[in-house]
Amino acid sequence: MAHAQVRDVPRTTKAPARAPQPSPLPAPAGAPEPPRTPPTFRAVLRHRYCSRLLIASVTGRLSLGMVPVALILAAQADGHSLASASLLAALYGIAPALGLPLLGRLADLRGLLLPCYLGAALVAVALGTLAVAGTAHLPLAAGCVALAGAGCPPLEGGLRSLWHAVLPDDAHVRTAYTLDSSTQEIVYVTGPALAIAMATWLSPAAALALAAAVTVVGSLAFTTAPPARAWRAAPGRRERLGVLRPPAMRPLLLSLVFLGATVGALDVAGIAVAERQDASWLAGALPAAFSAAGLFGGVLFARFQPTTAPRPRHLMLLGVAYAACWLPLLAPLPAPAILALALLPGALFVPLLTVASLTVTALAPPGTSTEAVGWMSSAIRLGLAGGTALAGPLSGHFAVPLMAAAGCALLLTARTARTARTAPAPAATPV
């Protein structure tokens, strides 16, 4: 605007000649222009193979939500106590924390086909044995449960590695990460409901068999897609620590353990509050409301997320806001109010998980993207198990998820402060 006003004033002296400026380089012929607004979920799914890969990945991961419930029902049907049945379910929750990073590293080394086929075969054999032999012999059942958990195919890590191959730019990839994080809520809502329905209609053994079947079907549909068959990790130097080598990665993964603990503690808190207030409906409604809010939060985040890659301060702000959303739940409130307030942290869970996922893959050394997602999933699953274990002795008080969320926020804040201190200072602008 100031230049326009200067040009309107009559000149009394000749203006000095401007130095010639280099003409801007033309954009490459095939390069897509970055979108001015974030792409929508529909824009991502319109690209070839995206819908198939997402549906196949979610189908193959449904067993993660089905097996814990099916195990408890099967163990109780075989005469075991609830404590023994819960230990089997906890073992299944922890086992993928050991298997997913190993299968992810194998995928980065050999491609996606071998680890997905190997994992699906292990899950099918282990769950098939449980469906036939039952859980009467606890050592055999525990071995099958551990094998089924450790053999979970790396479908989540594989999908996130493939987004860069099937989408045109980073903006679409960021939206795809939000979409994937949102669909994880479907796994942990639909999976238990499907297991309960199958166990009620037929038997708990049928629920275990169905969990094995969906794993195999999802893995086959995923790995037979041309992008999955052709994908190879970017070349890079392999080191012993792998994904854990960058110093910023370890505190970030530890913060995800605390993030997972909030969800694990919430499940116990829902049962405890339902018993205290004689509102049995709250035990299932509270996790369902949290997950539904996560889906809604993911949709909003995809619509209003930054058009550039997230920065450390975005992760810190989301972590602090997530922790603050647990504070109102400490008040003595009736069941409907608790259900409504649980929507607040639920709505921020998927955006926080999405930004953390993007940060994990950005920090991962070249050629370790699938292993990086495996470590991230392991951290969250360890947190889920830990949150459940801690919330029980503390009577399911909401202080447990609050403290876990606060720990997550503190780690993210410390990481952001450290990044700011170690970042190079900007060059001084000449006057």
Automatic annotation (TrEMBL):
Protein name in UniProt: MFS transporter
Disordered: annotated span: 1-38
Entries under InterPro entries matching the protein: MFS (IPR011701), MFS_trans_sf (IPR036259)
Keyword Transmembrane: yes
Organism: Streptomyces tropicalis
Keyword Secreted part of the UniProt annotation: no
Keywords: Membrane, Transmembrane, Transmembrane helix
Residue ranges, compositional bias (Basic and acidic residues): 1-11
Origin superkingdom: Bacteria
Transmembrane parts of this sequence: 53-75, 81-100, 112-133, 207-231, 252-274, 280-302, 398-414
Stored Pfam families: MFS_1
Gene3D superfamilies in the cross-refs: MFS general substrate transporter like domains
UniProt feature, compositional bias: Pro residues: 19-38
